[in-house]
Design a protein that fits this description.
This protein has 262 residues and is an alpha+beta fold. Helices cover 47% and strands 19% of the residues. The protein folds into 2 domains: 85 residues, Arc Repressor Mutant, subunit A, CATH 1.10.10; 174 residues, no CATH class. Helix 8 packs across helix 9. The longest helix has 23 residues.
Length: 262
C-alpha cells in the first residue's frame, strides 16, 4: 500500500512498543486504543498494520480475535529486549493484562510498568523491581502509580481459573518475600475464586504476605473498564476512584504498606 494516505497516520511506533512489552497485539486492542472510531476506518488501519513489514500474523483460531507478533524486521527495530511471542493458550489471559495496562496509561495514573515477560527475560530487573533475590513467582504485571515524590508499586494477577493449593502456596511464599510490592491486585473470574484466594493467601496461613490484597471482576472490567467495582480492606469503590484517591494519599499508603512487609 505504498503511498497510501493512512501510512503516516497508523500508529506503528505505539504498536511496536506494545508488542515489544507483551509479545503480541490483537485486533480488538488495536481498535480500542489506537484507532479512530468507525468500522471502515478501523478495518483500514488494521489492514495497514498487517501489511507493514514490522508485524507478521500470529495465527488464526476459531472464535478468537486476530493477533500479530513482531516480524524479523520488527524484532530488529525493537531491539534485544523485545519479548518473545507467548503461547496461544495464554493470549486471552494476557490480553486482559494488556487492556488493564493500557487503561491505566490512558487514565494518566501509571508512572511505569513491567510485563511478566519483561521480568522473566531479565532476572536482574525482576530482582530490582520486586525486591527479592528469590523470584519464584512473577506477577502478570507490575506497575507504579504516579504522583509526587512517592509512588505505590502494585502487582496484578489475573485469575481466570482456580489454581491448586500448591500454586497458591508458591504465590504466598513469593509475595511474602517481595519487599517492593505495596499492593497485590487480583482480577478474578468470579467470587468463588476470590474467596479461595483470600483463604489460601491469608486465612489458612501463618505466613503473612505483609500487604493489602484487592479484587475486581474480570467480566465487569471487560464491560466497564476502570469503572469496575474494586474491593479492598472490606470496602468497595471503583478502580478509577481508587487510583485517583491513591495519587493524593500515596505517600501515607506506601509507608504503611512497606512497614507491614518489613
Amino acid at each position: 500500500m505504498k503511498g497510501h494516505p493512512l501510512k503516516d497516520k497508523v500508529p506503528l511506533k505505539e504498536s511496536l512498543e506494545l508488542v515489544k512489552k507483551f509479545g503480541f497485539i490483537s485486533r480488538d486492542i488495536f481498535w480500542e486504543f489506537f484507532c479512530p472510531s468507525g468500522k471502515s476506518a478501523r478495518y483500514e488501519y488494521w489492514s495497514e498494520l498487517c501489511n507493514s513489514k514490522i508485524f507478521s500474523s500470529y495465527g488464526w483460531g476459531s472464535g478468537v480475535p486476530e493477533h500479530l507478533s513482531l516480524s524479523p524486521v520488527g524484532k530488529k527495530l525493537a531491539g534485544q529486549d523485545a519479548i518473545s511471542s507467548t503461547s496461544m493458550t495464554y493470549l486471552s489471559h494476557d490480553e486482559i493484562v494488556m487492556r488493564f495496562y493500557l487503561e491505566m496509561c490512558r487514565s494518566n495514573s501509571l508512572l511505569r510498568g513491567w510485563s511478566e515477560g519483561e521480568l522473566k527475560a531479565d532476572r536482574s530487573l525482576a530482582i530490582k523491581t520486586l525486591g527479592s533475590g528469590i523470584v519464584s513467582k512473577l506477577p502478570d504485571l507490575v506497575f507504579d502509580v504516579r504522583g509526587g515524590d512517592a509512588y505505590i508499586r502494585c502487582a496484578l494477577e489475573v485469575e481466570r481459573t482456580r489454581k491448586s493449593t500448591g500454586r497458591y502456596k508458591t504465590m504466598r511464599r513469593a509475595y511474602s518475600q517481595t519487599a517492593k510490592i505495596d499492593l497485590l491486585i487480583f482480577a478474578a473470574a468470579d467470587k468463588k475464586i476470590e474467596a479461595v484466594i483470600l483463604n489460601e493467601l491469608i486465612s489458612s496461613s501463618s505466613t503473612s504476605i505483609g500487604r493489602e490484597i484487592a479484587f475486581f471482576d474480570i467480566d465487569e472490567f471487560n464491560g466497564q473498564r476502570l469503572g469496575s467495582e474494586f474491593r479492598i480492606a472490606g470496602k468497595e469503590t471503583t478502580l478509577k476512584r481508587f487510583f485517583e484517591t491513591l495519587e493524593l494519599n500515596q505517600k501515607e499508603f506506601a509507608e504503611k504498606a512497606r512497614k507491614a512487609s518489613a
